[in-house]
Each structure stands twice: as C-alpha cells, then as structure tokens.
Amino acid sequence: MPGLTIGDTIPDLEAETTQGKIKLHQFCSDSWTILFSHPGDFTPVCTTELGKMAEYAKEFNERGVKLLGLSCDDIQSHNEWIKDIEAFTPGCKVSYPIMSDPRREIIKKLNMVDPDEKDSSGNNAPSRALHIVGPDLKVKLSFLYPATTGRNMDEVVRVVESLQKASKFKIATPANWKPGDPSVIQPSVTDQQAKDMFPQGFQTKDLPSGKNYLRFTKV
C-alpha cells in the first residue's frame, strides 16, 4: 500500500472539523490518536461505526487516546449526520471532531483513498482506513477495510492496549491476546535482564528446539 504507513510521521495538515480548524501535529502531539476515515455521510455502515466510536469514547479516553474522524463531505453535512448517528446510538454523543475534505487532498496525504469506490460524481471515495498514531506523531498501526466491512471496536481497543504496553515494556502480545492475558518478552532481552525488568517473574516454555525464546509474563 503506497503512501503513509507504519513508522511514518503524519503530515502537519490543517483541516476544518466539526469543532473548528485544527493543525494535525498540534492535535495529535503528546497523546495517542486514532485517525479514521469513512466513505461518506448518511451511509449505513459508517453510521454504525461512528456510533460505536461514540459509545467507546470513554474507553479510549481512559487510555489517553484522542479520536479524529474524516469524510469528504462538508461540515454542514457532518453536523446533520451527527444527529442520525446519535439517534442510532442512544445515550452516546459524538464528542470527537470529524474533518471535512471536499477537495480530497487530506485523504491522499493520509493514504485513505479507496481506488475502487467512487462517489456519485465519479471521484475516488475515502477508504475505511484507521491509523493509530503515537505521541511521537508516527503511525504505529494501520487498518484498511473495504466499504462493505465495518470495523470492530473491541479489536481497536485491543490493539491500542497492545501498542501502549509494548511502548512501555520490552514485551509483545501473542496471537489472540486480550487485555489481562500474559505477554511475551522480546527476544532481545536476556534472561538476566528479564529478571530485573519483570520482578513479578516469567515462565519459559519448553520447546523441542531447546531454545528459551518463548517467555511469558504479566504486565
């Protein structure tokens, strides 16, 4: 996938949002941020997704994560659409800003263009993309979904926790890991270093190779 990807610094763009004008670096600095695009306002899958983002906003806030949406429709359209989103998700408010990109400049710079999906005018629509950006303004993880498949917010929460733990400790999260499960210690950490880093202890799995690289611990 060409363009912005894992490890890249996000561009310092200016954008109009439902909460006023922002500069991307200023908005994202010193916190984790989820940037997510959707193909269009007043569309069924996107309405459910933004409703779920609103429902999960407290979960993300507790983890120090900001939310920032993006669509090519204008601000007036966004504000009208928010009424539908909140009606579909009773008790939840869209408290996060949604960027407007009518000239489709931002989606290109953020690598959020769907080459196959067109709008009613024949222009490329945004993909159902999601970037998780670290406090250093670098992309830590990206999801790219087709317009027909909605995102799973439990998975977004899961990978946020994984990324945050890996940034704090010398660990990685294994297959099917969930918050609260043991993590694995990174191979670059020696057993002696692991004893110092993880005073709670760790468990090494016996393997046919005899190599002691699969070490589990809870952090």
TrEMBL record:
Q: Where is the Thioredoxin domain?
A: 4-165
Superkingdom: Eukaryota
**Presence of keyword Secreted:** no
Its EC number is 1.11.1.24
The UniProt catalytic activity note for this protein reads: a hydroperoxide + [thioredoxin]-dithiol = an alcohol + [thioredoxin]-disulfide + H2O
SUPFAM superfamilies reported in the protein's UniProt record: Thioredoxin-like
Q: What EC class does the entry list?
A: oxidoreductase
Q: Which UniProt keywords apply?
A: Antioxidant, Oxidoreductase, Peroxidase, Redox-active center
Give one Pfam hit by family name: 1-cysPrx_C
UniProt-listed InterPro entries: AhpC/TSA, Peroxiredoxin_AhpC-typ, Peroxiredoxin_C, PRX_1cys, Thioredoxin-like_sf, Thioredoxin_domain
- Range of residues in the leader sequence: none
**What exactly does this protein do?**
Thiol-specific peroxidase that catalyzes the reduction of hydrogen peroxide and organic hydroperoxides to water and alcohols, respectively. Seems to contribute to the inhibition of germination during stress.
Family of the protein in this entry: Belongs to the peroxiredoxin family. Prx6 subfamily.
Q: What's the name of the protein?
A: Peroxiredoxin
Whose protein is this, by species?
Answer: Stylosanthes scabra
